[in-house]
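Tutorial handout. Part one gives the primary structure; part two gives the three-dimensional structure as tokens.
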Amino acid sequence: MRYLVTGGAGFVGSHVVLALLDAGHDVAVLDNFSTGHRAAVPEGVPVYHVDLMDDQATANVLGDKPWDGVLHFASLSLVGASMADSFHYLRQNYVTGLNLVQACAAHGVKKIVFSSTAALFGGPERAEPIPETALVQPDSPYGESKFMVERILHWADRLYGVKSACLRYFNAAGADPHGRAGEDHRPETHLIPLAIDVALGRRSALRLFGTDYPTHDGSCIRDYIHVTDLADAHIRVLDQIGARSVVYNLGNGRGYSNLEVIQSVERVSGCRVAWEKAGRRPGDAAVLVADSTSLRQDTGWTPQWSTLDKIVETTLQWRKNNPEGYTR
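Part two.
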């Protein structure tokens, strides 16, 4: 099959490209390289250097060749930044999603897998782990913008027959176990790579945002899912959306606190991770853990890299082998 991966030069997108190639599919990448890396795209994979804000350029790509499906990862993705610049986040993620889905409908592309988020689930009253039936109540413009795209996909199905899978995943982490790809954000904002950089002596200390949450140790609790397991789920759901659209929450189903992440990095690396207290970040929930029962039952998906230490181990290896990340 032939698939287009938007944001395929980014962290999750690049790992999904590898999974598609490993499964024998024909893959192309669309990316504006504002945050992605050309070096993250495997050799021989066609690249469209296009910004999805450009509706005509987007339409040209979708009309270039027959596509069996699109996997959409290209978006702004930082909760804190969305609180500081809300209209930019809402506009960017909504318009790029709209342009892409409209182009898919116009050119007969009937399958879209959308990278959604656990940030849809806000509010103090919520079941844990979180099922797909939980109340959608975003605590940030980032989460709101993702839900806006989910609504675009709802209407694309109802009016144009475009089927979709919205994967509301939790905290993507880790690196390709074969060393082909990893995490390289500039600046880096994710807890595990930041803690590893402190362990490796590349940072003096880690700032821990919030130590007074209603959790067992006062720090936030998150469900970390290995990016390779995440990619596997994307491949599996392609078979689920031939006749219907689906929504799945995607995580390991177990939460780890920020302090437990630090302890895991210290355990795996054998080095101390210095950290200091910082205030809570606006938009951060105390606990986010996924109930992925539906995905497991429908697709047979089971995470292979489910323990925090395994996730940390692959991240550590990537950062040791690639101290400068990707070259731009």
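Part three, for discussion. The chain has two domains: 2-173+225-250, 191-222+254-321. The first helix runs from residue 11 to 22.
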